[in-house]
Amino acid sequence: MYVVAYKTEDDGQGGVIFTEETYTEIANLSFAPSADLVGASVPINEFEVDIHTEDTIEIGAYAQLYDDNDTLWASYWVIYAEHVDIHTLRMRCQSDIALLDRVTLDATYYNGADLKDVLDETIVRNSGTVGIVTPMSYTLDSSFNGETVTGFCPEQTARERLLWICFTIGAYVKSYFNNQIEILPIDDTETMIPMADTYWKPTITFNDWVTAIKCKAYSFTAGTPQTTDTYVKDANGTYYIVTETDLTLANPEAPAAAPENIMTIEGVFLVNNDNVSGILTHLSQWYFKRMEVDLDAINNAVYIPGDKVVGYATDRDMVSGFINSASFTFGLQSKATIHLTAAEDRESG
Description:
The chain is mainly β. It has four helices and 25 strands. The chain has helices spanning 97-100, 115-124, 158-169, 276-287, and strands spanning 2-10, 16-23, 26-31, 46-52, 56-57, 62-66, 72-85, 88-94, 104-105, 108-114, 138-140, 148-153, 156-157, 171-174, 181-185, 190-192, 203-206, 212-222, 231-233, 239-250, 262-265, 291-298, 308-312, 318-329, 335-346. The strands form six sheets. Strands 1, 2, 3, 4, 5, 6, 7 and 8 form an eight-stranded antiparallel beta sheet that branches. A six-stranded mixed beta sheet has the order 16-23-24-25-22-17. A four-stranded mixed beta sheet has the order 19-20-18-21, covered by helices on one side. The two termini are 38 Å apart.
């Protein structure tokens, strides 16, 4: 593994020179990316590393983590770079998602707004206000072309708004093994983790039964609210009267004797009557499946958060599920502790 970062030097005339440098003498590298496929959060991924150097690295620049095959693992913003001794620089870097927490967006009502325009406003247009060297950028998967956004967003951070958008379109944010934020659909394509690459023995756990999911959908009408109305107000001072609708999806697999356990989703004002059914279907994929699996495997950037994999639970039994986190350790080969959610048994021979 090696790190590419910008070191700073005095130019002798009261200025600073930025020079891209490759550092191969590194230690204590930690990298544990995660992705929230349910839509409950947008994780801030990071890596931390000790570099054997006397150089100074600039805060606010980007540092890239590569493996020995020149595969990019992370391109993150340097938030900390201090010498723990004269020959060792400890550096901590975070994904651009952390910068979105520094941007506050005005309360806005969207009425069929183009998804790309809303994301540009959320991610790109305000990135120059947070003191980074390079403006943020992102890519949107082509499967979301033509998507629109309808509903109300209160004053909130750009990270919170990105979460609401991804939740309502069924997307997740990938901020690892790339050089910019990616907004992707959940892909059911499966990758096999061979038994020979699996450390023994994977652990299986089961969550409580979720018997139903209840979700509130919202509609908004501009006007003057009465004392009994629920209403919101955008940054321009326009009032919108709020109408709420409750929809519930029952878990058909839950035993009749299972205690009632209803997952409730409310307060996300981008959920409306047009998208709520798709949201409930998406959530059921995660909350109605109780099994979770932890396994260790040789993992040279092959199995990453967001992927669906099939692995061995025993020498006879197999499971499939989605990776939501992978904690890497490094040696001659990389190893990862992988956590699978929405897991289920898979027939095997």
